[in-house]
Amino acid sequence: MSVPVKPRSSALAIRQAKGQRKIAMLTAYDFPFASLVDGNGVDIVLVGDSLGMVVLGEADTLSVTLDDMIRHTKAVVGAVQHSLVVADMPFMTYEAGVEAALANAARLAQATGVRAVKLEGGAHILPQVRALVQSGIAVMGHLGLTPQRAAIFGGFKVQGRTAASAKAMLADAKALEEAGCFALVLEAVPSVVAEYITQRIGIPTIGIGAGAGCDGQVLVLHDMLGLTSGHIPKFVKQYANLKDQVAQAVSAYVADVQQGQFPAEEHGFAMPEAERTLLLGNDKKKG
Question: Active site includes 187?
Fold first, then answer.
């Protein structure tokens, strides 16, 4: 059953939702899926650099370029009428400093129409966050497991398992809030740590593998629809198994083609009888 759609969301509306209601966020990378997500009550559509792994078949997110993000974000923005669209700033498009962050975010915004971006990291990106917010681009933060820096962590591993690292994460969260972030993704951190941070900052936390204590949740759309292969993260709840349904549909199509059952007469187009006679008349006489 479809959820009634809401007026177009905004970064301000998301920030004001803290303490009022839970926030639902999903990824989308193309027009058809973005339309479906937007039309069913999702607050935020994230064009994640996870598209590198989910859509492009790469091993991680580092290979995703700004051009990749522009192409996919433009498609999503074109489909979305109600949700807030947030686009990931890909690897090395903002780390080099304020000038690079402003130039790349401006190109992304101007080429796609997106008005909110997500950056991974804490204290080291505060100048970039401040500059982007001051320029009129809303910024969502991202702490915990930050996939663009997974190599430093030794892979995709849970972060914040010690009291010291949890307190350091809280310090980063407060600094990002002070710099102007309107919301904060917490990825792969113990539930108690996510709740600890959520209760101590004034902006919404969006959890992914961070427990129910966050102000909202996000999942990769293809994961929750059962479209991905291989390892499924522990924190994913699959709401459908479209992979098997698609496989069955493709198999049925191939069988119909091979057996001559598709296309049937109803799948074709008719020709006016007079024209048919003109076309085939001589053939009929020969027959």
Answer: yes
